[in-house]
Amino acid sequence: MLDQAQRILKDVFGYDAFRGNQGAIIERVGSGGDALVLMPTGGGKSLCYQVPALLREGLAVVVSPLIALMDDQVATLEELGVAAVALNSTLGAEEQRDIAERVRRGEIKMLYLAPERLVQPRMLAFLQRLDIALFAIDEAHCVSQWGHDFRPEYMQLGQLAELFPEVPRIALTATADKRTREEIVQRLHLENAERFLSSFDRRNIFYRIVPKEQPRKQLLGFLAERRGDAGIVYCMSRKKVDDLAAFLTEQGFPALPYHAGLPNELRAFHQKRFLNEEGLIMVATIAFGMGIDKPNVRFVAHLDLPKSLEAYYQETGRAGRDGLPADAWMAYGLQDVIFLKQMLNNSEGDERHKRVEQHKLDAMLALCEETRCRRQALLAYFDEELPRPCGHCDNCVDGVQTWDATEPARQALSAIYRSGQRYGVGHLVDVLLGRDNDKVRGLGHQHLSVFGVGKALSEGEWRSLFRQLVARGLADVDLEGFGGLRLSDSCRPLLRGEVTLELRRDLSSKAPKPASSAASQLVRSEERETWEALRTLRRKLAEEHSVPPYVIFPDATLLEMLRSQPASLADMARISGVGARKLERYGQAFLEVLQGTVEVVRSPADLRHELVTLARAGMTPAQIARQLDCSEKNVYTLLAEAIGKQQLSLEQALDLPEDLLGEIQEAFLDGEGELPPVADVAPLFAGRVPEQVLFCVRAALQAEFEL
Ligand SMILES: [Zn+2]
Fold first, then answer.
1. What is the residue range of 265's domain?
2. pLDDT tens figures, 286-335
3. Domain tally for the chain?
4. Which end of the chain has fewer CB within 10 Å, C or N?
């Protein structure tokens, strides 16, 4: 059977070999057995049921919790020439009946369903009359009542065991600790399932955590090497998300905001654009993520600290699902620690719950202050032992310096104690450095014995030390929320001189720049031009087929084309990810780009497309002109054209004061019949409004009239 599976893998999906456990899982399910599959994101989960679905007779039923995920998979399968459909609430009654009819006639190979739909008695009865190849239950951890993604309908999926005793079932998840694993087995009645546990190591992700100094500036530094890459930036608050998205766009990094405070349609629109366009940055709260299957997210950046390692692992795991190098980058500082500790203190819930959360936060903080390999520490938290340092994280690559901080730490704790256990780090540092300012004087703190004892260290070093004291639980944050520090019980051995303390030395931002990561070097500069040409062709085809670009070909396939330079269709067929159907459809077109016979770089259509993207992302015409390397006048002409075609709204294109806009509109609308030409109106605004702006306003009015 594995032979047959291999053939399907090559012919349909275009891959030469199975990865990790895939082969064993496919063999198990293909021959009718149940399976429980734990695989990290990007491990190739979907192949584990898609290949057996094609191996076996009958209809494969896939349960998935999110419409976006289903649509994405169906589009991918359709491109591969596999008959797949998703039945969901967005379809009309007619469409649903049509799908049911096609299923009944045996024309559909894979049916994607939401759990609530599958467990409807009518649906179950309908399926019982059919020949079913298998049931695949994706995101199986949704069955766990203790998890964040709990979906009550998942509990009812257990009845499949009884209703379809002969049909193999495969449950899959990327997030499951031991307890959740047992819950999945129990609730889904998978007692006979073979368990396949993959390593949770995401080897292609490079982890870096830096001390937070000037977060925006640091982020720009990080992004500078990643121009044109898609990524996610996580922030804690909605306001920060909005501000940062605007700031990044202004700085020439097209970015969109995403958080629960935005209207549903706008959120869905931003998500869709993120999936369908290249090189967009999504700035988001944690509301963004579940259901994002975009494989070529090249980086995930955190500007605020996640609450737990589970969250950190899950969020960073959205990078590099295609297996290509990707970055997980985080800026972290004392304010994060204080904020999260206070949130925890003020949260509702019983003591036990708080203790669990506290424990999780401590583990997160420990990773931030880790002096050994980050990956080893991260995996150890998930009970997985990595025998050697990974060589692919900041600590491994840059090395970590530690220093004996025993004495300064005692001075710092003493400063907290002697000043009354109520002041924040800023004041404590002033006292230690002996700064004679108003606040110090007003409180009489210049008379404390610790006043000025800390001049051997710089302000930055003191702040780093305080952060590490709090992170290690040697000092606590006050409960009232003013950020004051107090001593904790665990600092006593240190104060009494019974233990010593080694701390991490923060690399100052003035230190030599850390080495670039593999992800930022993915495409070398001499390859850029051909790479962009390939991406442009891919985007064009994606638009024609109304699918996201990565459904045409994933980045890994494009990259292999770039590197191996196939000279014929036969060569092309050997590239990983080029199956029979795609070779036939797209092989020639990509070959021509590689051979340079087609000039796809920046056709006028591309320029327009890019311009619309940038304008929607909030860039001003001047910024767009810089970005596209063309004249501002040219930009305005194209903007007017896009407005006329209703690809852009006037508000997206220009930032005009409302009353001025009103005045211009009135000038155009004065009189009967046709809109007057710009030349007629221009004298009224001479010296105030550039003529190009008038063209845009006129185009908007024109478009409105034609409606
Ligand atoms: Zn490492």
1. 205-398
2. 878 766 778 899 999 999 999 888 889 989 999 998 888 999 999 999 88
3. 5
4. C
